[in-house]
Amino acid sequence: xxxxxxxxxxxxxxxxxxxxxxxxxxxxxxxxxxxxxxxxxxxxxxxxxxxxxxxxxxxxxxxxxxxxxxxxxxxxxxxxxxxxxxxxxxxxxxxxxxxxxxxxxxxxxxxxxxxxxxxxxxxxxxxxxxxxxxxxxxxxxxxxxxxxxxxxxxxxxxxxxxxxxxxxxxxxxxxxxxxxxxxxxxxxxxxxxxxxxxxxxxxxxxxxxxxxxxxxxxxxxxxxxxxxxxxxxxxxxxxxxxxxxxxxxxxxxxxxxxxxxxxxxxxxxxxxxxxxxxxxxxxxxxxxxxxxxxxxxxxxxxxxxxxxxxxxxxxxxxxxxxxxxxxxxxxxxxx
Length: 335
Known about the structure:
alpha+beta; Aminopeptidase; twelve-stranded mixed β-sheet; two-stranded antiparallel ribbon; 8 helices; GNAT_dom; N-acetyltransferase domain-containing protein; Plant_NAT
């Protein structure tokens, strides 16, 4: 994490976080991609070059640590950020995504009796994702580490009872084989931020600005809930994030509805959980099956990318720099 402060007063006026991940593409290429997260500049110090300085500084850190590309995300309607990234920092658009939000407080209907949602164990989840992630155009290599994080509540599969699902067997205690797969099913995992977002700060505290800059999700969520971001300091706020969504088959609509209802009910049992969120790329087959109810809100998101290394492969440039990719894995650790 890098911070910007005024030399005279030591006032904190900006912050940015960065991390480096190993990612895989459909062509089996392995890439080291730096992710820029949570870029925030104090409202009183915007348009003064603070944001540009923070971005270039974190890019230099990424390059020193072996990153070949950098990527970042911003809301589609955030013209100031888009101009900074594309005009001044020379990023290009990588992917368009949609963030879906549904409040926990909204009454959820019962899950259809024709549908079953079954939790799978860790070995089964890792095995399934090893196969299903290959449908993504960009995904992390450490999916097993994500699934084993304390904030990950588990992995489930939603399917129709009359079709069954699949019969998993353990072979040599390492490899999992599938004997029978139904025509329609969806795998999903749930990430719990209710503990991570419980910190409450009062306006008089000197680190209030730093805390708000680190809470990337709050800036997006609260306007959709008709609440100001400052309201979040009055009481704890948490949300459940659906990640690793992958569906196969033709009848996915009811299964997606069951997943939202299941997750909403789970959120009702968690203290301070107030919303369910997921983010899907415009080319993800499931994006058209998200329930379009009056209580569902949407935010358009854009991912940008930039080549940092002069030694990048031409095939990788073709994927990341010269065209839009539509089906990507959204890492819950970044949200």
